[in-house]
Write a structure and sequence with these properties.
By secondary structure, the protein is α/β, with parallel strands linked by helices. Helices cover 46% and strands 10% of the residues.
């Protein structure tokens, strides 16, 4: 596996932060993945976010978080982690509104009993502020989330892929269970308009948890 390509235009602080991230991931996945695999995921994640991020100081953190998600997905595919834990992937266009709210509800209600991921076909630059505010009204904080793409590993590792408006851009893998939720796009809407969308997403997430036989927290 080639790992010669390194992130470009790194400041000293960013370089040190990526090195620290690589060490943390290597410790977490010791005996599961080698250093080359971990660094490849980390560096490609960094490069992906660097092309559209408006907050370069956070790039190493975003890269680490996304690399960790991809490594967890790959470990699941290879039978090395999370076996038997229901995993759901929420997909929309920009991964800034609907899919983020769905992941927020799913994670909040399922706790450690299931796993939720999200992604977008054309990831935006930030999570929709109106979606953040609407979720805060429900006691769920999604302000620390960030728009991200999906990868083959993440889609293949999910038991269910819930699509929301990404159409033909949504990834299709044979044998994967897909569920399409037709929901209004909250992009450009104020919080008052987002609330009904949020409430419908909560209803659907609770129904999905019932289907998966995952108890929902009250």
């Amino acid at each position: 596996m080639e790992t010669d390509a390194q992130p470009i235009n790194l400041s000293i602080d960013q370089h040190l932060a990526l090195q620290a991230a690589a060490r943390r991931l290597s410790d977490e996945y010791s005996g599961v993945f080698g250093t080359e695999t971990i660094e490849l995921f980390l560096h490609t994640s960094y490069d992906g976010f660097a092309t559209r991020s408006t907050v370069p100081n956070f790039l190493p953190l975003l890269a680490e978080r996304f690399a960790r998600q991809q490594l967890r997905a790959l470990a699941r595919i290879e039978g090395k982690a999370d076996q038997g834990t229901p995993t759901v992937l929420f997909l929309c266009v920009h991964n800034s509104g609907r899919s983020q709210m769905a992941m927020g509800f799913f994670t909040h209600l399922a706790g450690e009993r299931a796993i939720a991921w999200s992604g977008g076909s054309e990831p935006g630059n930030e999570v929709n502020p109106a979606a953040i505010e609407a979720m805060q009204e429900k006691g769920i904080d999604i302000s620390g989330e960030f728009p991200k793409p999906w990868t083959d590993e993440i889609v293949r590792a999910a038991d269910v892929a819930v699509t929301m408006g990404c159409g033909d851009a949504c990834p299709i893998f044979p044998g994967k269970r897909y569920v399409d939720w037709v929901l209004e796009d909250p992009a450009g809407q104020d919080v008052e308009a987002v609330r009904p969308i949020r409430d419908e997403i909560e209803r659907r997430v609770r129904a999905l948890l019932d289907e998966l036989d995952v108890p929902a927290s009250t």
